[in-house]
Amino acid sequence: MSRPDDLWTRLSALTPARIGLGRAGNGLPTREVLRFGLAHAQARDAVHAPMEAAAVADAIAALGLRTLTVASRAPDRATYLRRPDYGRRLSEEGASALAAAAGPPADLALVVADGLSARAVHENAARLIAAFLPYAEAAGWRLAPVVVAEQARVALGDAIGAALQARAVAVLIGERPGLSSPDSLGIYLTFDPRPGRSDAERNCISNVREAGLQPADAAFRLSWLLGQALARGLTGIGLKDESDRALEGPEAAAALPAR
Amino acid sequence: MAYRHIVGPRTWAFADLATLMAKATPPRSGDRLAGIAAESAEECVAARWCLAEVPLSEILARPLIPYEEDDVTRLILDTHEAKAFSEIAHLTVGDFREFLLGALPETLTRIAPSVTPEIAAAVSKIMRNQDLILVARKARIVTRFRNTIGLPGTLAARLQPNHPTDDPAGITASILDGLSLGCGDAVIGINPASDSLQALGRLLHLLDDVIRRLDIPTQGCVLTHITTTIEAMNRGWPVDLPFQSIAGTQAANASFGVTLALLKEAREAAVALRRGTLGQNVMYFETGQGSALSADAHHGIDQQTLEARAYAVARAYEPLLVNTVVGFIGPEYLYDGKEIIRAALEDHFCGKLMGVPLGVDICYTNHAEADQDDMDTLLTLLGAAGCTYIMGVPGADDVMLNYQSTSFHDALYLREVLGLRRAPEFEAWLARIGLADATGSLLPGDGTPRLLAAAPGLAS
């Protein structure tokens, strides 16, 4: 039998769960109480830190894209957390701004939304869009102005996509922070966006972050799904993400953008 | 029929019983989201005054959801025991509260089959937290499969060894950790990440293997959809406890893809397997306030009353375990630590009053206004209330479901502070294998090598 310490080194490598923590009496060692406290604090901060909308918009504008900032009907974070219905609807100012900005019909509207983690947006959104642009250029997709949305839920993208006359909308949104993933971005793609779409009509790419799915990989998946969505005229349960097979198969080379 | 209460110059009126019960409910975000909560603190208390004067027989006579529309209402009324009800039929809700405060444990056992969820919910709404604790503590609900759960002075714990990709070695590592810390008498229960039949089969065999090799007097469960578990039983795989999430309306259950007939089918199939050595309580259910609203199946009824109706579904199938997952659903239903604590005590009280072996997943998400201190408070209160079981998650951090629950250490804390023992058969096993002394206290040092000595190769 191995010594206990070796045993726990080996067992701990098998799972991200907090096992082999030890005991102080019947309680947790101080180290573990503080380690947990730090993880929870980071998750809490991620939920409550406001999105730096101007900085996010600047970073996206630096990629050569037009941007527009709107807010949902939830005026603050406390209301946002209690009233998911408000987070799915545009503020009056936001609706007017979109109406004024609407240009010719587009293939895709990109929406960058704070959701439940502004940190996820700060760290991943511009990188993801930068990685996605070469695919959009290669495919010749027309992009609507990128909308930065505050106090937003996923379904706010339906109203935005409809206002911008986009064939599809991709909402890049901060996901509900886990104790060890405060920085995780989700992408929700919806074909023919309009208010009233259900979650079953969307495709999701989740866990986009440094320690998860890399933005470059997420950009490839998004472009694969968008290509399928525009060709087949649907998203959701009828469209399975088979981008892995595209990467392995002969069409992978064709799917990669010209540099 | 309208209900009225006069406070000084003002007459408060409530259009019907559903409105009255919603307005009388202690504040919570889910009822506000549904647009049915009291508009002011005074309206809430006026509703409670009014509710206290409503006879129990009137609540029984006025179903909140019509009999013709909802099979949960039909279940409640068709299985109601009129003889037991005669003992309380003459009481108002206010009288009933006082009756319960003075009742003996055997009285609670006698009336339990006659307590409808609406009656339990109504009386809970006019009770303070200490009332909810005191009455629940007197209820005696004992269930058996391979051990005895719910004896006075005991607390059980579910060992919850979840893994983000269902990796068998990772799950086994968490099981060893939990067992070495004396956790697992309620059940070793895995929430699978995958909903595939193949994944279920692997996990069922893993649990069966661990329980057999270590000869643990406990039961295993993979918390997957009941139809998948029925298929597993058809294939002869080792199912101890069929699991299902349930809710308090037919429409909400339909949104879970479950019917009362499916629950009956699963129970009968599991009983026929005869895998329980001490008893045939084979079902495991989970519930939680807000599930009906989130499924748009709430009929304008407050979330706490609907939760109690889920216990009426549970009790029809003589479950081994039922737990409310109180803070999992998020702040749009229970906003902060105060609302989560109140809801957990209400749920536990209502379940126990109705004769259901209620445990609580004491938990929260990171977007709720709650933290470990709130959970410690709730844990201690539920220990005092005689909660049947709690969850044991490694370090309180569920790395698959992404929420915080209670840990193996939390169960040890509660045992030490309140002198709570484990299921007796499990406690004897811990002593036999050299992990705990005869009183159930863990022996010093890491117990895992002792476990591995009993089942060589388990972690290899």
Mind explaining what this structure looks like?
The complex is a heterodimer of chains A (259) and B (460). Chain A is globular, with a radius of gyration of 21 Å. Chain A is built from eleven helices and six strands. In chain A, 45% of the residues lie in helices and 16% in strands. Chain A has one domain (48-255): Ethanolamine ammonia-lyase light chain (EutC) (Rossmann fold, 3-Layer(aba) Sandwich). In chain A, helix 7 (118-139) links the parallel strand 2 (106-113) and strand 3. Chain A is of the alpha/beta class and 259 residues long. By secondary structure, chain B is α/β, with parallel strands linked by helices. Chain B has two domains: 3-138, Orthogonal Bundle (Annexin V, domain 1), CATH 1.10.220.70; 143-452, Aldolase class I (TIM Barrel). Chain B contains 22 helices and 14 strands. Chain B has a four-stranded parallel β-sheet with strand order 7-6-5-12. Chain B has a four-stranded parallel β-sheet with strand order 8-9-10-11, covered by helices on one side. In chain B, helix 9 packs antiparallel against helix 17 (303-315). Chain B is globular, with a radius of gyration of 22 Å. The A-B interface holds A 1, 4, 7-8, 10-12, 14-23, 25-28, 32, 36-37, 39-40, 43-44, 46-47, 81-85, 116, 176-182 and B 29, 32-33, 161-164, 167, 169-174, 176-177, 181, 331-332, 335, 365-367, 371-372, 393-397, 399, 402, 404, 407, 409, 412-413, 415-416, 442, 445-446, 448-449, 452-453, 459.
